[in-house]
TrEMBL record:
The keyword Lipid biosynthesis does not apply. InterPro entries: Leu-bd, Peripla_BP_I, TAT_signal. Residues 1-30 form the signal peptide. Transmembrane segments: none annotated. Residues 43-391 form the Leucine-binding protein domain. The keyword Protein biosynthesis does not apply. CDD domains: PBP1_ABC_ligand_binding-like (cd06343). Belongs to the leucine-binding protein family. Coiled coil: none annotated. This is Branched-chain amino acid ABC transporter substrate-binding protein. Keywords: Signal.
Length: 409
């Protein structure tokens, strides 16, 4: 006797209809929805730690813009019908405080995932803990090479260009424009600084030419100034200055170079190229600085009609008017919040930590509103390199002149 597929399918559909009509409402779709801690039919809870206070407080705006973005989404109905509860906690850029805040988010608040947390040293302090708990640690505001290790630490993914990639590209640029360069380096005395330092020096050494590092100076985040380090570097005979710093140290060092009348080719880490940092240094003092670029700027005429910049500006005006319209750090936070929202949207009704990780690690091709055209995320489950397309750029004193063609390491 020939089987009748249509009849069999009808019977299955009929049974499903009967089941749905007889089961209490909360149980109708239970088989299709999956939740871990921090997720339910009505809410998704996510967290973050950033320095809202202390020497890195400039970056606290990352959390405030995230709050604004998710508030806006919630007012429009949330993500897949669920409201987002976003908890951004202060770690003061301190490893012990980061541990305390992260444990609270995981063990007391029971967040589904963390995203956009900042700092190599603070995030290193919770790296193993979050992986042992199976909690996604996504879109980190640090480009340390250690985050690209999906075999051993699959729950952790960087959100910035990896520092070694950036350093190697800048080193190749130095060799091409100053083959006999004498390089002086200022670097932050922690994992952040050293992750740039080693790869940069290795490219110079491997090139076999005469370009070399002739002096290194370090600073700690708690140092009130970096004046003495800059004085030493200016007297060293260096004609290239590689500035591996963050926040106020970046502004101080750029300004000090100008005060000293020192005229080296200046290289600056991409994380310190935000307009707020350059403004504090004095834009006229920033002319000629070379850096990696992969993102748009806010507060500049060339971008004011860009749809992504316009969307950010609308959000800023409505929810955070006290933030300057040229605050690129806030714009970076906006881009990451949009990306995290996209990850959650792709999760659908499977709001497990495993699926959050799966969606994050398959973001290849997604364009953040923060990115320059042509730059997208490149994550795959086997390679957590956030992006592989970067541009060399030079600051004119008013804007970044971006190279026509991207570079890779």
């Amino acid at each position: 006797m020939t089987k009748n597929p249509s009849r069999r399918d009808f019977s299955a559909a009929a049974l499903a209809t009967i089941a749905a009509s007889t089961l209490p409402a909360p149980y109708v779709w239970a088989a299709e929805k999956k939740y871990d801690a921090g997720a339910s039919d009505t809410e998704i809870k996510i967290g973050q730690t950033v320095p809202h206070s202390g020497p890195g407080s400039l970056y606290g705006v990352l959390g405030r813009i995230g709050e604004a973005y998710f508030q806006m989404l919630n007012e429009k109905g949330g993500i897949n019908g669920r409201k987002i509860k976003f908890l951004t906690m202060d770690d003061a850029y301190s490893a012990p405080k980061c541990v305390e805040a992260t444990r609270r988010l995981v063990e007391q608040e029971e967040v589904l995932a963390l995203y956009g947390s900042l700092g190599t040293a603070p995030q290193t302090a919770v790296h193993k803990y979050l992986n042992s708990k199976g909690v996604p640690q996504l879109l980190l505001n640090t480009g340390a090479s250690k985050w690209n290790n999906p075999k051993e630490f699959k729950w952790t993914m960087a959100g910035l260009p990896l520092y070694p990639t950036e350093a190697r590209i800048l080193a190749r640029h130095v060799i091409s424009v100053k083959p006999n360069a004498k390089v002086g380096i200022l670097y932050q005395n922690d994992d952040f600084g050293r992750d740039f330092l080693g790869p940069f020096k290795k490219v110079l050494a491997d090139a076999g030419g005469t370009a070399q590092v002739i002096m290194e100076q370090t600073y700690d985040l708690t140092d009130p100034t970096v004046d003495s380090q800059l004085i030493n570097l200016s007297k060293s005979g260096a004609d290239v200055f590689y500035n591996i710093s963050t926040g106020k140290a970046s502004s101080q060092s750029i300004r000090k170079v100008a005060e000293l009348g020192w005229k080296p080719l200046q290289l600056l880490s991409a994380g310190s190229t935000g307009r707020s940092i350059l403004n504090a240094a004095g834009l006229e003092n920033c002319a000629g600085i070379v850096a990696i670029r992969y993102n748009k700027e806010v507060g500049l005429p060339k971008w004011e009609k860009d749809p992504d910049v316009m969307a950010f500006e609308e959000l800023r005006k409505k929810y955070l008017p006290s933030i300057d319209p040229d605050n690129t750090i806030a714009f970076a936070g906006y881009g990451q919040a949009v990306t995290m929202g996209e990850i959650l949207r792709r999760c659908g009704d499977d709001l497990t930590r495993a699926n959050v990780l799966k969606q994050a690690s398959t973001l290849k091709g997604f364009h953040s509103p923060y990115f320059l055209d042509g730059v997208t995320y490149s994550y795959t489950p086997e390679d957590y390199t956030p992006m592989k397309t970067l541009f060399i750029s030079t600051f004119s004193g008013k804007d970044w002149d971006i190279s026509d063609k991207p570079m890779s390491e």
